[in-house]
Each structure stands twice: as C-alpha cells, then as structure tokens.
Amino acid sequence: MEAKRGQNRGSSCCCSPSMDNCCVMHLRINMRLRTTDRFNETTERMEVFARWIVQVGECEVKGISILEDGEPNWIKIPHEFLRKNDEHSVQNLITAVYPHFDIEYIDWLYL
Hints:
Number of strands: 0
Low-confidence stretches: none
C-alpha cells in the first residue's frame, strides 16, 4: 500500500531525534474567521476556502497530471477561489491581500 505525501512527511518528522524535544500542535480554528468586522457572506466564503486548504494539506484533494505520463502532483483550484485575470489583476490582488496599502505602506505595524 502506497502512503500519501503527507504521511511520508509525517513519518519522517516523527523519526527525527529532535522530535523527543518537540510538542506537535494542530490548529483547529482559523482565527481570521473570528473577526467581527466581516460580513456573513465573506466569512462563509473564507470558511469554505479554509476547509479546502485543510483538504489540500491533508492530501484529500485529488492530484492531476499535466503530462500524459506524468505524476499527479498538480491540483485544480476551484473557480470560486480564483481571481479574475484582467488589466487590473495585480492591483486587485494587492488590494485583497493588503487592504489600505496605499495609505498604510509606511506603518511598520501594518506591514
């Protein structure tokens, strides 16, 4: 039986001598979803995306091959998680990741 990539990584980490001095913690709550300044629709979309990211990390999203005889080491990102590719794509991405960047770019606490 073949192990998933995540299982291989996990078993190699657990066999490391340094693991005797480590405490493995599992994140269960996305703290960004707990902010109160977001609308319900945005929070729901973020929860769906967060669940999908967990599935990717747990190797539950099926890999695809981009070559005929290649390994299935690519994943298809659902359309609802993609940003539109247009003439303002880069600016829209920056705005989504860093809201108010045009005002706050000199504030080290913001960055």
